[in-house]
Amino acid sequence: xxxxxxxxxxxxxxxRHLAALAHMMLLPMAEVYEVATFYAHFDVVKEGxxxxxxxxxxxxxxxxxxxxxxxxxxxxxxxxxxGRRVLRAPCMGACDKGPVAAYGRTQLTGCTAEMLRAGGPxxxxxxxxxxxxxxxxxxxxxxxxxxxxxGRLTADAIIAQLGEAGLRGLGGAGFPTDRKWTLVxxxxxxxxxxxxxxxxEPGTFKDRFYMERDPHRLxxxxxxxxxxxxxxxxxxxLRDEYPHLRATxxxxxxxxxxxxxxxxxxxxxxxxxxxxxxxxESAMIESIEGKRGLPxxxxxxxxxxxxxGRPTLVNNVETLFWVRDILQDGPDWxxxxxxxxxxxxxxxxxxxxxxxxxxKLAPAGITARELIExxxxxxxxxxxxxxxxxxxxxxxxxxxxxxxxxxxxxTLAEHDSFVGSHAVIILSDRDNVADAALNLMRFFAHESCxxxxxxxxGTEKAAAMMAERHWDETLLGDLAxxxxxxxxxxxxxxxxxxxxxxxxxxxxxxxxRES
Length: 515
Prior knowledge:
five-stranded mixed beta sheet
């Protein structure tokens, strides 16, 4: 947070700033420097270097690439805006409105080179209405929290209802929520809650959707979770790509604290700094503690030793968002929203070649074909359905012939794929799947934390081999196996999935690549 304060004020972080911060915090200079240089959004200027001008970051992840990001970047690099620095950047969480760029701290959608060169005035961002604290309370908000504290609703009853509803971790892993809450509840205090709002998976923007439209429903779920499991502090870890949302959440959290509703639970808003790896729960915890976001070895698991070495409950935004509705309307209501025997409703972040991209609240167990036809208005004009990514960058790429499989946890395992965070990117007959997989592998290579060799070097070597006209299938297969077996966390373990999907389902696209 100190580094953020310096960066916000000066627009960069100098060597003198780092030295002063190290002195103030009684830390070695090396420790401060390694944290500052780990995160992409901190512009560290070495002694003797000029301070950078305003930075324009253009998203080059897959969804924005499908909307012309590469042409935009090439245009800006050929004729750079005067006094501006242009950088490539990973997903910014507005995948349905690409190409996307961050002009300093302002996120812009549907960008053109002319817009960025002009430097403003920019179109006003769409204002998303939401219930402030008073309106939320008038609508019955925080009544369940009061019932829990008054003993009219018990922790055991809440956990049982979440289990009956089939609520799972909706950040990607799908671990049953009732089991996770029980594990942490049985641990000795003090305990902490960490809310993961660092959705950096390319194609994912569902948590942004929830927080923009109903932040207090998230806060109520957060406070119920902390009360049930006995957590003393709650940390909301928000990605830095959502500055407008951070302002809203900070304001509403202030009103919430002033109301006294949190009781003895202390709520902290923590801010990421541009690191996809911090979506992994233990890396997020390291970042909350003020360190580099390096995933931890397990065991011990974070439910036993998390923030500051204490038992920690980690939940995704979407998971906590549904707690109030399940307790209010009953577990049978929530479970009955699914299809084909699957329980619940999901927020699918849909982008790519569909007529109406966006966040779609759809039944668990819906198929990709049904999602396109029923919720997205069909394919975009002139495009025929060819392939889809069911779970963002790491979930693999499946052909349209497998688009009638229910989308839920475990249903795609036989095809070496998974739904993860339910980020669905649709590709058409105009797209080369091998090019798409190369884009994703370059993303993984850029975002690897560098802690373990199989991921750090594996993603880099895989990207280099995938850029060749012909792929060495045997060597890529061996590399993928090494990464899956020996990487510390899910980034390196899942990074080969899109590459192996191409070899399995789209080998003809390898020799037809654009690049």
